[in-house]
């Protein structure tokens, strides 16, 4: 890998085998280097291949303005998400995360803390992303000698969620509202207080997130487990209340999203609702 232009001690521009421009970042990777020099590739944190002029300008501005340690922290968080949870994240998430970490540290050192209005929902509906956020703030605190509040774990989780949703952050809000509405229907219809930390509720939330995805994509090819026992229980009428609740959910989804639950959809919904009901 040869340098085409030094940006600073920690970044330079090169070209890949397809003659595309690449921006390469790594601590002291370009220190003392000049045009056409080779570099130690083991020092590379991240390589960007900008798609547009806007992307290129954004990355170059960040390289010049943001200390290298924040790029390194962002890479560790992205690596953690990808290795531990098999979450695939795009370069745009890495860029947004780097910028957010830098801003968060600057804010906290200035005594300014932001409240995350979705913190409860993130903890309840996206636990694995939230756990990565918690791990991330411990990393940031130790590296940058700050004490970030739990709200920041939620903000980092939102960046990870947005990457999973293909940067469609509006969809995150829609999914949150969808889960809240369905949960409210179950709570009201069954007159139960749901334990939102329970395994059954977490399974229900996971099912609702998958249901949302195939409802939006109109993809009916989904199979979750062996349903023989649950089907038998429903046929015998042991889950009448849960089934009636599932019908309320069906009516809400039909009216709000113009999607009609088929018998299989109803069955899955009934099973999850029944598990919540049985736990109360």
Protein model, in words:
The structure is a single chain. The chain has 280 residues and is α+β, with helices and mostly antiparallel strands. The chain has 3 domains: 5-50, Roll (Transcription Regulation, Sacy, Chain A), CATH 2.30.24; 68-164, PTS-regulatory domain, PRD, CATH 1.10.1790; 169-278, PTS-regulatory domain, PRD, CATH 1.10.1790. Helix content is 62%, strand content 6%. The protein has 11 helices and 4 strands; from the N terminus they run ββββααααααααααα. It has a 4-stranded antiparallel sheet with strand order 1-2-3-4, covered by helices on one side. A hairpin with a 5-residue loop joins β2 and β3 (21-25). α2 (68-85) packs across α3 (91-109), α2 packs antiparallel against α5 and α4 (119-125) crosses α5 (127-144). The longest helix has 22 residues, at 169-190. Residues 220-225 have low confidence and may be disordered. Keywords: Repeat. Residues 65-170, 171-280 form the PRD domain.
